[in-house]
Amino acid sequence: MTVREDEVRRPDGSAGIYGVVEKPDFALVLPRSPDGFWMVEQFRYPVGRRAWEFPQGGWGQGVGGDQATLARQELAEETGLRAGSMRHLGHLFEAYGYSTQGFDVYLATDLEEGAPDREATEQDMVHRSFSDIEITAMIRSGQIVDAPSLAALTLFRL
């Protein structure tokens, strides 16, 4: 991650500073079960709480590849699920008001269960399947607050 401040000139000619966070793109996966989705829950240090979200992540330092491969890797790593079918739903930006980071959303279907292979930072992660009705209730109750997960769900529902 790189953080920089750019000197900018606004449309009215006045000078200003614009802070920008440069981060590599990531992949987010919507693992579809017959009547809902699989989700993961973990502690997120910056906000000091646990919350449910869809499996997501980026390539490690010095590693790279295509986003579909990354999506399959994150799904297997965080949930143990393997997708028979993976469909790209779109590309979004996490917070384009201050960051260059975007993410690709994939719908994973024809799922086969297996054992997760989580990173050290994901030791406290849990995963389970929720029905569409449960997910709607979790959004309303504040159990799902991850903006990329909510945006990805919107792409699916559209």
Q: Please trace the helix and strand order, writing H or E for each element.
A: EEEEEEHEEEHH
Alpha-carbon Rg, integer: 17 Å
- Which percent range fits the helix content? 10-25%
Q: How many helices in DSSP terms?
A: 3
Q: What sort of overall outline do the alpha carbons produce when their principal axes are compared?
A: globular
Q: Which structural class best describes the helix and strand composition?
A: alpha+beta
How much of the sequence lies in strands comes to 35-45%
Q: Can you give the mean pLDDT?
A: 95
Termini Cα gap: 32 Å
* Number of beta-strand segments: 9
The main pleated sheet reads as: 7 strands, mixed
Low-confidence stretches: none
Folded structure, characterized:
The protein has helices at residues 67-79, 132-141, 147-157, and strands at residues 2-9, 15-22, 26-33, 36-44, 49-53, 56-57, 82-93, 102-112, 126-131. The two termini are 32 Å apart. The radius of gyration is 17 Å and the shape is globular. The mean pLDDT is 95. The protein has 158 residues and is an alpha+beta fold. Strands 3, 4, 5, 6, 7, 8 and 9 form a seven-stranded mixed β-sheet that branches. The chain has a two-stranded antiparallel sheet with strand order 1-2.
